Amino acid sequence: MRADGRKPDELRPLAFRRRYTRQSPGSVLVRMGRTAVLCTCSIDLAVPTFLLGTGKGWLTAEYGMLPGSTATRKARDRGGKIDGRSVEIQRLIGRSLRAIVNLEKLGERTLYIDCDVLEADGGTRTASINGAYLALVDALHSNRVLLGQPASLIRDSVAAVSVGLLNEVELLDLDYREDRDAEVDLNLVMTGAGQFIEVQGTGEETTFSRSQLDRMLKLGKVGIDAITRQQRQTLGSNWPLD
């Protein structure tokens, strides 16, 4: 039994609140346990220089933790300087969303994903990806006169979850304390169809076997499927697939 009473294969309470802000065409507050992230999607009628004249669009992401999101104040990024962890996570978010967007059909437009952590208790990168997908879909729906139907722009859904090995037990969706103490930490990003987008697995002062990796991937897939079902339920008639 885990500290919060969950079983090893159980997700933290997961909730999505769409249209959390009015200004952005796509806006979702995602909660995974005590972790809370505001995800927004904005559309710009321009692309980076390397895509000018190609007819192809782009998607990019930014990620940040607000000063009050952690137990000790998190300093703001200033002067264009972003800490290495934030850079790594925002690149992961961007890669994850680009994998399921048909950029060739987007035209020369840029989708901006912004993920701001309001409260951090582990799994901020996975929560960001889960909420960003919904924000993306809502943004495309609100601009379908300009961009066309979202079904033509989105190939699949995307979801992410963490898995860890703690005291030789595989655990799904780690909170901060579990993540801090885990011997192995793995972040998994997959499509709704079951294809891998990214696997980030690291041993913390230890190693892990192929059989342990296989079990963690299997457990992660269970979590991904559950998150995908909730994403679909949350979007309702706006679900772009099928």
CATH topology: Ribosomal Protein S5, domain 2
Instruction: Supply the CATH class.
Output: Alpha Beta
Radius of gyration, CA atoms, in whole angstroms: 18 Å
Terminus-to-terminus distance: 38 Å
Q: Which CATH-level-2 architecture?
A: 2-Layer Sandwich
Biggest beta sheet attributes = 5 strands, mixed
Average pLDDT taken over every residue: 94
Strand content: 25-35%
Number of contiguous helices:
7
Counting structural domains, the number is: 1
Uncertain parts: none
Q: Please write the string of helix (H) and strand (E) elements.
A: EEEEHHEHHHEEHEEH
Would you report the number of β strands? 9
Indicate the overall shape.
globular
What structural category characterises the helix and strand content? alpha+beta
How helical, in percent, are the residues? 25-40%
Strand order of the largest sheet: 1-2-3-5-4
CATH-defined superfamily = GHMP Kinase, N-terminal domain
Question: What's the short story on this structure?
Answer:
This protein has helices spanning 84-98, 103-106, 124-142, 144-147, 150-153, 176-181, 210-235, and strands at 14-18, 26-32, 35-44, 58-65, 110-119, 158-166, 169-172, 184-191, 196-203. With 242 residues, it is an alpha+beta fold. The protein has a five-stranded mixed beta sheet with strand order 1-2-3-5-4. It has a four-stranded antiparallel beta sheet with strand order 7-6-8-9, sandwiched between helices.
Account of the 3D structure:
- This protein is of the alpha+beta class and 242 residues long.
- The protein has a single domain (14-70, 85-235), classed as Ribosomal Protein S5, domain 2.
- 32% of the residues lie in helices and 29% in strands.
- The protein is built from 7 helices and 9 strands.
- It has a 5-stranded mixed sheet. A 4-stranded antiparallel sheet has the order 7-6-8-9, sandwiched between helices.
- A hairpin with a 2-residue loop joins β6 (158-166) and β7.
- α1 (84-98) packs across α3 (124-142).
- The N and C termini lie far apart (38 Å).
- The model has no long low-confidence stretch (mean pLDDT 94).
